[in-house]
Design goal:
With 323 residues, the chain is an alpha+beta fold. The protein has 10 helices and 11 strands.
Length: 323
């Protein structure tokens, strides 16, 4: 008896995206995946579109890494333990070499964080990558955006601005030295989601968001959801050596406060938990910096200079529908 041949779509899925399931009850290969959990599910979806979120000639290994990293960053911001993800791909044509490299980059990051692919879809169309990821979290310890309280410190992991500076270099809006360019492009193409920090901040942070569209924009989501004002000290924002060395400091400043693709965590915590926050950062292997304070007032973000005076904000962050 001969075996029914696979269609090109299902052959592609079997070649590049099929692995045995370990966390799910049933993974890739059926009409639905099956999963069970005793905790709350944190679920997030992100879409990457060629020409909007990445350049068409982006290395497919880096693209596979980043496509999953942006979802892991959302789980980190919720303090969720990564569990599984699904992948939907629109492809202009089937390119096995490209798909193999994409899958390699994606699976390398998946293995690092113990998350598994359990299903998805493929179709023909402009190159578009959409991932839905899920993790588990105790609802009482989820790091929501609506928990910031007046008096809380505002903290930032790592540093912002480098990914946007790397993009500015690619677009020839700024010229970086070779070492700085390499660092910024690595930050742009292979961001490191702060999953371990998100887990360590459960029970400590009062609110959190990942910095995907720009520091001030994403902190603004916390301010809006919590009904508070967020005051950020410009002089306290951590800066990489590459950003400090940039010859165009106006571009550097815009990248620092409004550049996207950083995938750091901005979060709040009471002053009494400063030692706990620093211990969480140390345990996760990432620096954490106190950059401001939550106060009563109109829900907004203010950028302050070293003397405490308000500074103009030209651009809060990336807007997907801005003209």
């Amino acid at each position: 008896m001969s075996e029914v041949p696979l269609t090109p779509e299902f052959a592609l899925i079997r070649r590049h995206f099929t692995r045995p399931a370990s966390k799910a009850l049933l993974g890739v290969g059926d009409d639905c995946a099956l999963s069970r959990t005793d905790q709350a599910l944190a679920i997030t979806t992100d879409m990457l579109v060629s020409g909007t979120h990445f350049l068409p000639d982006t290395d497919p290994r880096a693209l596979g890494h980043k496509a999953l990293a942006v979802n892991l960053s959302d789980l980190a911001a919720m303090g969720a333990e990564p569990l599984w993800f699904t992948l939907a791909l629109a492809l202009p044509a089937v390119d096995d070499a490209w798909l193999s490299a994409f899958a390699e980059g994606m699976y390398a990051l998946a293995d690092q964080h113990g998350i598994e692919l359990i299903g998805g879809d493929t179709t023909r169309g402009p190159l578009t990558i959409s991932i839905t990821a899920a993790g588990t979290v105790d609802p009482a310890h989820a790091l929501r955006r609506d928990g910031a309280q007046p008096g809380d410190d505002i903290w930032l992991s790592g540093a912002t601005g480098d990914a946007a500076l790397g993009l500015a270099h690619l677009e020839q809006r700024v010229q970086l030295e070779a070492e700085s360019a390499a660092y910024c492009l690595e930050r742009l193409h292979r961001p490191q989601p702060r999953v371990a920090l998100g887990l360590a901040l459960r029970g400590i942070a009062t609110s959190a968001a990942d910095v995907s569209d720009g520091l001030l924009a994403d902190l603004g989501h916390i301010a809006g959801r919590s009904g508070v004002q967020a005051d950020v000290r410009f002089d306290r924002l951590p800066r990489s050596a590459a950003l400090r060395a940039c010859t165009d400091q106006s571009i550097a400043a815009a990248c620092l406060t409004g550049g996207g693709d950083d995938y750091e965590l901005v979060f709040t915590a009471p002053p009494a938990r400063r030692d706990a926050v620093e211990a969480a950062g140390a345990a996760a292997g990432v620096s954490v910096t106190r950059i401001g304070r939550i106060v009563r007032g109109t829900p907004r973000v203010r950028l302050l200079n070293a003397e405490g005076a308000a500074m103009p904000i030209e651009r809060h962050g990336f807007d997907h529908f801005a003209s």
